[in-house]
Amino acid sequence: MDDRTKMVTYSSDHPIRSKREDRFNRAPFATHVADTIATRLDPSSIVIGLYGPWGDGKSSTLNLMEEALAAHSEIVVVRFNPWLFDSEDRLLRGFFDSLAIALGRSLPAKADRIGTLLRNYRSMLLMASFHVDGGTKPGGTAKATDESLPIARLDEVSDAFRETMDRAGKLSSY
Fold it and tell me: b or e along 96-130 (b: 16 or more beta carbons within 10 Å of the residue's beta carbon)?
């Protein structure tokens, strides 16, 4: 092996985890997005898309955003990958489980209350699912179940969750 081979360095395809590793200056952008999320006053929902080809640094940027959001104690970051789930039922269960775990870590004194509220909310959403006429029979048509979603109860659970988060000093707009 000659000396040139020893001098070559290789890097893995793993995303960076902190701005100390940021060789492409993504941290200022990630910090700006994180600060925008943390300081916005509008209580309505917001969706932020991060687009780019494979290997372009999307996961690294998300990690840098999460690092920047750690400076805001009222923010709870929930990592969730919907691509890991093959059905609506599993997606909802996975999302609410991930949310409960993240909030439970952030608010250990309220973990049981939050977990109960989120399980109730998830259960009500699952009751609103659609099913196919005739079970697995081909050619069935999708229609709502006969059980109607108790919207008033869903709102109560949602309000209780929001109140719990507000009392804990965590942002609860969703």
Answer: beebbbbbbebbeebeebbbebbebbbebbeeeee
Residue 64: band (very low, low, confident or very high) from pLDDT cuts 50, 70, 90: very high
Do 98 and 78 form a contact (C-beta atoms < 8 A)?
Answer: yes
The separation between CA 74 and the C-alpha centre of its own chain, rounded to angstroms, equals: 16
pTM: 0.69
**pLDDT tens track for 87-135:** 988 998 899 899 989 988 888 888 888 888 888 888 887 776 544 334 4
d(CA 120, CA 123): 5
> What are 170's two structure tokens?
């965590």
From CA 61, how far away is CA 27, in angstroms rounded? Answer: 7
Judge contact between 87 and 80, C-beta under 8 A: no
Q: At CA 91, angle to CA 106 and CA 54, rounded to 5?
A: 85
Angle ∠(128,98,47) on CA atoms, nearest 5: 75
